[in-house]
Amino acid sequence: MKRVLVTGGAGFLGSHLCDRLIGEGNDVICVDNLFTGSKDNIRHLLSNPYFEFIRHDITEPLYVEVDQIYNLACPASPVHYQYNPIKTAKTSIHGALNMLGLAKRVKARILQASTSEVYGDPEVHPQPETYRGCVNPIGLRSCYDEGKRMAETLFFDYYRQHQVDIRVVRIFNTYGPRMNQNDGRVVSNFIVQALKGQDITIYGDGMQTRSFCYVDDLIDGVIRMMNCEGFVGPVNIGNPGEFTMLELAQKIIAMTDSKSKLVFEPLPSDDPTQRQPVIDLAKEKLGWNPTIDLNAGLEKTIAYFKKVI
């Protein structure tokens, strides 16, 4: 049994990760300040003797004894991270420093949940880990993009200078049950609008692309990376299937049997026009490949939102 710390553990991805870790027989400490996370996501775990919830903000130091640390804490949707951009940057940077300091003290392995946003609005498509990105350092999204880039820098500096046992994953668009219906992400936006019969909002001309990974596949890749020996990353974790926003909207309208119409709004500042991971490294090093296609994943996600709306 490992003692595992999950920061951001009451969030969308964090709660699914806690489920898997508990299911695999670990002792899990979930840390979350509940800014975007919710106790509802972990309520079913609170009575488990091997699960502990601590309400804490990782911009402040934390002192616990653990074997592994998954650092997932950070608002991940533009609606939330632009609400308080300075706090977002602090979470990525101060949070990384605090968690790396903890890992150094207790000699824990630590994994950083980085993001495809480190590639910015890419000029290379699809994006391999060797691509250094095209990021605006002073834009509305910079608090998140540059915060995550700085966190990666800190992880590799602690690795080189202090021999901290790090792992870095770059997470591409992920969807599934427990997404926040008000988080402004495209999958949850479209599903909620379709189920409510509202107009579906498409930004720009709808031809920008994203690659959508179902949460179960994503968590499998992250856990494989944590337990992989001799490889620190970074590694892309995402589904390489690429879809335009128009394709996604039409698919969701059909699957929900909705009467919603499409409306078009101006494209937000620095919104990437295309996003697709190269996952050759994940296949080679982790033996990982996503198995749940978009239709199957959307069915499960739509069923979840039908319950919560």
Give the CA-based shape. globular
The end-to-end distance, rounded to whole angstroms, is 38 Å
The major pleated sheet works out as: 7 strands, parallel
The share of residues in helices is 25-40%
Strand content of the residues, in percent? 15-25%
Oligomer: single chain
**How many β strands by DSSP?**
13
Helix/strand-derived category reads alpha/beta
Q: Output mean pLDDT.
A: 95
* Count of individual helical segments: 9
Order of adjacent strands in the largest pleated sheet = 3-2-1-4-5-6-11
Order of helices and strands: EHEEEHHEHEEHEEEHEEHEHH
Poorly predicted tracts of residues:
none
Q: Over all CA atoms, what is the radius of gyration?
A: 19 Å
List keywords for this structure.
single chain, alpha/beta, 7-stranded parallel beta sheet
In short:
With 309 residues, the protein is α/β, with parallel strands linked by helices.
